[in-house]
Structures are given as structure tokens and as C-alpha cells.
Amino acid sequence: MLQITGLSKSFGDNHAVDGIDLTVRTGSFYGIVGPNGAGKTTTLSMVTGLLRPDAGSVLVHDIDVWAKPAAAKRVMGVLPDRLRLFDRLTGAQLLYYSGVLRGLDTDTVRSRSADLVSAFGLEEAVNRLVADYSAGMTKKIALACAMIHSPRLLVLDEPFESVDPVSAANLVEILQRYVGAGGTVVLSSHGMDMIERVCDSVAVIIQGKVLASGTLDEVRRGQRLEDRFVELAGGRKVAEGMEWLHSFSD
Ligand SMILES: Nc1ncnc2c1ncn2[C@@H]1O[C@H](COP(=O)(O)OP(=O)(O)OP(=O)(O)O)[C@@H](O)[C@H]1O
Description:
Radius of gyration: 19 Å
CATH class: Alpha Beta
Order of helices and strands: EEEHEEHEHHHEHEHEEHH
CATH architecture: 3-Layer(aba) Sandwich
Low-confidence stretches: none
Bound molecules: adenosine-5'-triphosphate
Number of strands: 10
CATH topology: Rossmann fold
Mean pLDDT: 94
Number of helices: 9
Strand content: 15-25%
């Protein structure tokens, strides 16, 4: 479903993404993990046609994202990292806009919107302006917008961030049923337990490179994913020298 080859992006001297290769098969629930600044968002932005790569290629369902962006975007539903939504619309209007933009007819948009609003528990919020939503509610309406055109591939950058545990469990269930029906999910997250519970495959990206990828068992090698991640990331930093914080200087 997704084939990333030699993907690279630099910002000045910073090699944010440095020759990444990844293969995500159809029907996979694929997790991308990595420390802050590792290059996850930069990678996913290039995969989804939001950021032009310096080098490399991205094929989504055999369509080259950068040669045929419109065709490739039809196949994908995207939750970007920084949510730039038309937030002077209500949730209902934003869903309507997303559906119609994706070529759905009005009746289909209305019935899918109702399903999504109920699945994400947004009934109380749907007629209010998105600008007034909490962070978690904003994430949920953006997720609903990403799904409305029933794409083959969902690319979700930190979908669980700011989302409460009950809503996160709902989202996991929605995504698991989607994958069960043949959909493919690629998501980034810092929630190792969540990734370990729901993903069948995982890639660990550190300093713009894939240090490990494959099935969950291949990557964690008998350890907890979190321990393997810390090992790959070069261990934890011991917090030294912060004694001033305990001096309560008032
Ligand atoms: N538009 C930009 N201009 C300059 N540098 C950028 C830009 N976008 C990202 N970077 C840099 O690229 C590197 C990778 O950033 P990226 O956002 O991809 O990391 P990330 O793995 O998603 O991190 P996090 O887990 O904190 O979200 C960082 O060093 C970041 O400062």
C-alpha cells in the first residue's frame, strides 16, 4: 500500500530525513516511533504530499505521490501534525466541506457525518465553531474529516495526542475494524503501550534514519517496545545538575 524509497529532506544543514526506506503492506496497522525531532512528521508530510522531498520516492497504492499528487491524495486520508483547519466553520460544516471536497454527494456526506459524529462522541459539539473546540475535540473532528471519503490508507500523525482514554479506545476500535476490512493505517505516536497493543508492524526512526523496522516481534526482539526504543535511542539521559530546582528560591 505504501512504498517509501530513499526519502530525504534537509533544512539547511539539518538532515531531518536521511534516506528512509519503508514498506507498508495492505491491511497493516503500522506504527512509527521516534524521539522528538527524529523526522517522523517530516516523513509523513512527504508521504502525504504536504512537503516536497529533496530525494526519494513515495508510492501509495502504486501511485507516485509526487508525480500524480491528486490521484495519490484520493487514496489517502490524512491527519497532519499541525492542524490547520477552517476553524470558523462548525464541526458539521467542516465535515460537509471535507466530504464534498472529496467528491461525495450531499446525502452520502450527511449520513457518513452522522456516523462519524456519533463514533467520535461529538454530538454536543458538532454545531459549534471548531475554533472553540478543546485540543482533543479538534483532533477528533480532524480524524473524522480524514475518514469521510473512506480512503484505502489512513496516515495519522499523533492521533492519540490530547485525546482522552475513552475516546482513544473508541478510535482504536474504529481503526481496528477499518484494518480488519482491508484498510491500512500508518500512524506516529509516542504511546509505546498503545503501539505495542494495536500495531502489527513498527518502524523506529532516529535522527532521520530507520534504525529498525518490521513486525512488532522483529523490532522488539523479546523486549518491551519501550525498552528496545530506549536502547536504539542510545539510552536515557541522567538528569544531573538540576539541584537549583529544589531550592524553592522564594
Ligand atoms: N519547516 C522546517 N524548517 C526547519 N526545520 C524543520 C522544519 N520542519 C522540521 N524541521 C526540523 O526537522 C527535524 C525533524 O522534525 P520533525 O517534526 O519531523 O520531528 P518529529 O519526529 O515529528 O518530532 P516530534 O516527536 O517532536 O513531533 C527537527 O530537527 C526539526 O527542527
